[in-house]
Each structure stands twice: as structure tokens, then as C-alpha cells.
Amino acid sequence: FLNKKFLIIANAAFTVLNFRRELIISLLDKDHEVVVICPEKSDLDININAKTEFNSLGIKFIPINFSRSGTNPLGDIKLFFNLLDAIRKVGPDIVLNYTIKATIYGSIASYFCGVKKISSNITGLGYTFTNKSLKAGLVKQVVSLLYKIALGLNSIVFFQNKDDMQLFKRI
After folding, report:
1. In DSSP terms, which residues pair with 157 in a beta bridge?
2. Which of these, 104, 99, 100, lies nearest to 151 by C-alpha position?
């Protein structure tokens, strides 16, 4: 990986700064460029100024708005096109996606932008797969299809737990 440009896509600055900081520092120490796309503020980002935090680490930050838990198809379509535009401008060599929407829409947008190495980290199933309501069941069907498409475009997918990996093998 000589002088590569890594793009990290997530749904909150908090998750990137708290759970991916060591990875980012390691990439920067090896003279790679790191760019982060995530919302400037989310419900998780209490007392975090994303722009200041990322800039202090030497990371280019591109704020993009999206709801972590919303199920509005128009909002998700807008997110997809915003990601498509941002990824095209960044021109990354490698994309690392974290969280459901980042994985689904980030993977598909990265593929359309010609990114050769796309990876995703499945950190958990979340409400869509654990809630038993009728609405959650319908959303689960759509999300499962989108995951199947998106993960098929990934070079590698990381799972935080084996049960999730077994479920995704059946999707």
C-alpha cells in the first residue's frame, strides 16, 4: 500500500474517532492519506467538533448529512447521490465503510466511482434485524437485498461477531 488514499465512511464522527483512531493513526504513520465522510453532528457526537478533531489528526473531513436510523427512501436516495459525488471528488484507492447505511450506500457508490478496493465492517445487526414488528420485517427484507448487492461489491467484509457472519451467509 504505497501512498494510498483511504476513505472512511461512517454515520457518526464519534464512532470513527473512538473506534477507528488507532487504524487512522497507523495509516497516517505509513504516509497514507486519510479522508473521512460522515455527518458533522449526530446524536452520538456529544461534545465532539468533528471538523476540529479530524483536522487535528491530519485527516481531510467531508461532512455529509444522513440519518443513522431513518427509513425515508428519498433521504436514502439523496444520501446515495451525495456519497457518489463526494467519492468521485476524493478519488480513493481504498474505501472502508462502517455502519449499515455507510456500508450499503458507500459500497454501491464506491463501485460506481470505480474504486478497486471496497471493504466494510459489520459491527452489529441493529434494529432492522432484531425488532419483530411488521414495519421492521418489511425494512429487513429491503435492507437484506441492499446488503446482498453492496457486500457483493466488497473486496473484504469484516464481522464483529460470528452470529452476524452466519446470518449474512444466509442472506
Report:
1. 120
2. 104
- Dihedral sign, CA of 32, 27, 42, 138? positive
How far apart, in whole angstroms, are the C-alpha atoms of residue 41 and residue 66?
Answer: 10
The three cell numbers locating residue 160: 464483529
Dihedral sign for Cα 146, 147, 150, 152, please: negative
Contact between 87 and 7 (Cβ < 8 Å): yes
Give the other-Cβ count within 10 Å of 31's Cβ: 10
d(CA 117, CA 69): 27
**What 3-state DSSP class applies to 33?**
strand
Q: Is 48:14 a contact under the CB 8 Å cutoff?
A: yes
- Tell me the pLDDT tens digit for each residue of 38-58: 988 766 656 778 889 999 999
Does 133 score more than 70 pLDDT? no
Choose between 115 and 124: higher pLDDT. Answer: 115
User: Nine-digit cell at 59?
Assistant: 485527516
Output the pTM of the full model: 0.89
Which pLDDT band, with edges at 50, 70 and 90, does 131 fall under?
low
The full 3-state SS of 45-96, as one line of letters, equals CCCCCHHHHHHHHCCEEEECCCCCCCCCHHHHHHHHHHHHHHHHHHCCCEEE
